[in-house]
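Troubleshooting entry. The earlier prediction with 5'-deoxyadenosine gave an output that would not parse, so I re-checked the input for stray whitespace and re-submitted. Clean input:
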Amino acid sequence: MSKKLYLETYGCQMNVVDSEVVVSILNKEGIFLTDTLDNADIVLVNTCSVRENAEQRIRGRLQVFNQYKKKKKSIIIGVIGCMAERLKEKLLEEEKMVDLVVGPDSYRDLPKLIQSSETGQKQINVLLSVEETYADISPVRYDSKGVSAFVSITRGCDNMCTYCIVPFTRGRERSRNPETILKECKELSASGYKEVTLLGQNVDSYIWNENETQISFAELLEKVAISSSDLRIRFATSHPSDMSDDVLHIMAKYDNICKSIHLPGQSGSNNMLKLMKRGYTREWYMDRISAIRRILPDCTISTDIIAGFCNETEQDHLDTLSLMEWAKFDFAFMFKYSVRPNTYASKKLEDNVPEEVKSKRLTEIIELQRELSKKNKHKDIGKVFEVLVEGFSKKSDENMYGRNSQNNVVIFPAKNLEIGAKVNVKIFRCTSSTIFGEIV
Ligand code: 5AD
Ligand code: SF4
């Protein structure tokens, strides 16, 4: 008898793929997705721990499921992913209605754990693995429009930045067998997909050893570009310490590799970078940006920035602003520092930047980025870009939207283009987040 699964996913792109892996594993056991809670036998929440507010939001959802379980006692509620890994048994104590706690490396065990929890016994598996990459599992792209898909190439992270929970929730870094990556990309293309994004916490540290040969990220990227020449290829996330010129040259060599790089800088101050144990200096980071500009003049660059990390002075903050102005980022994800339990920073450093100062600095960072984004987009006016059509604009069904190679959202008047088509669009207007054009 088939059962129904209601699944919610929070956090990063990696969690999106993980949920697709979970659906694939459960489908084989006769458990299928439903969109509505009312039909569900099982509820799974794939969670994120990266900042306190991510966890709070998820706790809010768990309360909703708690109310629901009061009405329907037979429903099984599971927390999977990073919060499951971080909190382990504590989660069962704190959230009484949770039946199941499963960490990111234990999804193969889900069918068994679900079955066991039907007896009313709480189930938990939060073992981390040094090998698991789910390489043989074909993710079920249940929430996609059939145009663009994420493909995981590494799991975990060995960097140990002092603020970051990820090494604790996702474990040691491991790379996935390249043959399975190439195969997955080919299958995606065969089923109509037009774009893949290769995913890892730090794609540049991808390494595969076999028969005395080594495959680096640059080599993997080239293999994917050649063997799936009909796909657009993106990747995330790059790490400033490890991003080599080799990768940039491969990007330059293949038209189907998109010209956009996400290179989180976190701060422009050497004091902060050192306390964060990022493994590079401001000058090194600037050198990497210069290399991108030199080798890939059309490439957009985005970043992540943390405001108000431990001991951050006004001068450190000004250094971040000046780095942003120098780098002229196209886009940024910007956050206030949030202490994560068990990290080096939580144990050894003091979260001593007052909340109002963090807020003020974050606002200044956001405002500067808005200006930079707008200036960058302004430069696109008059240019023609190839756009991969993703759908209809939210505001009007007279307009369609898609992305260019630079990962900018482009809106243009059109009605009957196929989703997944490619069109050339000439840009005539922009805001800080979107560019507008007409098909030429
Ligand atoms: N507080 C604030 N932001 C954080 N990030 C990671 N850990 C924290 C934290 N403790 C941000 C970093 C990272 C992005 C995914 O989330 O900028 O690049
Ligand atoms: Fe992704 Fe990090 Fe959040 Fe885990 S904690 S879901 S790895 S962003």
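This one parsed fine. The chain has a mean pLDDT of 97.
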